[in-house]
Amino acid sequence: MKQFIDVNERIPLNQGLPLSFQHLFAMFGSTVLVPILVGLDPSIALFAGGLGTLIYILVTKGKIPAYLGSSFAFITPLATVIKTQGIGAALYGALLSGILYVIIALLIAKFGVTWLERLLPPIVVGPIIIVIGLSLAGTAIGMASKSYLVAFVALVIAVLANTYFKGFLAVIPILLGIVGGYLFALTQGIVNLAPIGNARWLQLPHFAAPHISSIAAWTIAPVALVTIAEHIGHLLVTENIVGRNFMKDPGLHRSILGDGIATIVAGAIGGPPTTTYGENIGVMAITRVYSVWVIGGAACIAIAFSFIGKLNALISSIPVPVMGGISILLFGIIAASGLRMLVESKVDFGSKRNLSIASIIMVLGVGNAVFHIHGLEIGNMAIATLVGIVLNLILPDDQKSPSGEKEKLGDKKIA
């Protein structure tokens, strides 16, 4: 007897609606956190994520259940560009990152995926993901410093939910941490409720348009190379859960193309770049409901919520230390996931080649610098990514010594 809802199955509205709300709750905390951290409107992130998900479902022919939300990988470059060049420039970088997705999708359709695996192996992607998390550490602590007590409470709630809760509650620790931290912040008198009362019930999201910026192009767009690797990982996990070969049908190229077009649209209207969400994959694993109709329902609800002015005001009223406490966990998880990739891929750091690549990527990535090359200003994340790719391509493999044995740093004494 079948005990799951398949990808293309439609279920009655009274059953599907609660399931769609579950997906909404799963992605909500992370999706609204990104725009708050970088200085964008949370309502436009909800709108862009919902619309992007519908675009993704359409491009993948309704064959892959995936929800697209705001990408954490872009937080540092987005925040940097918004601070120095403005929101329009950051949106231009986001739009270009989507175009890079589209180009890679077309190349995969033409030449397969082997070249991409060669370009972005774990020794390149892992350290970059670590850098993404560590580069945000100062931001998290800075926000938490506004009230360490409130930040601590929010962090503890999120950690306990992530560690001890089971079922659906285990998928939404970020949302639970935000809600719990917010309620505690109310008892401390640091929540300003006035904007909620003054806000209208219905209002348009704050749409914005991109404008050309070379700094944004080189600071933001290259991060797409890392999120594409993340996208592939999510797709493989979804395959295992659903029991279908999505890499073959509808194909990896369609999946990446859908994400790319969604990101282009997000950048064009004022939202952050999108990515597939592991939280929603977790919901599918728990509920065994894989229907794209349920995912699409969550997307439609998110779009509807983006027009509720009081909801946007409520999100904007979340105190900074609450977000700081949650960010400590989130950004640490990002860095740890890069380390996990290196461990699971069994990357050998006894290899001088691997050690050199990882070391250079991490120092260039964490270093807060802008590089000037032939009149172009290139951000540290872009440089770290590009240098890592180049080093991986040109450095010889030292896993085998002339005698056929592995040569490790520990095998030789330093004179």
Automatic annotation (TrEMBL):
It comes from the Bacteria. The chain crosses the membrane at residues 64-82, 89-113, 119-141, 148-165, 171-194, 289-308, 320-343, 355-372, 378-395. InterPro entries: NCS2, Xan_ur_permease. Keywords: Membrane, Transmembrane, Transmembrane helix, Transport. Pfam families: Xan_ur_permease. It is found in: Membrane. Coiled coil: none annotated. Its main location: membrane. It is a multi-pass membrane protein. PANTHER family: PURINE PERMEASE C1399.01C-RELATED (PTHR42810:SF2). Belongs to the nucleobase:cation symporter-2 (NCS2) (TC 2.A.40) family. This is Uracil permease. It comes from Fodinisporobacter ferrooxydans. The gene is uraA.
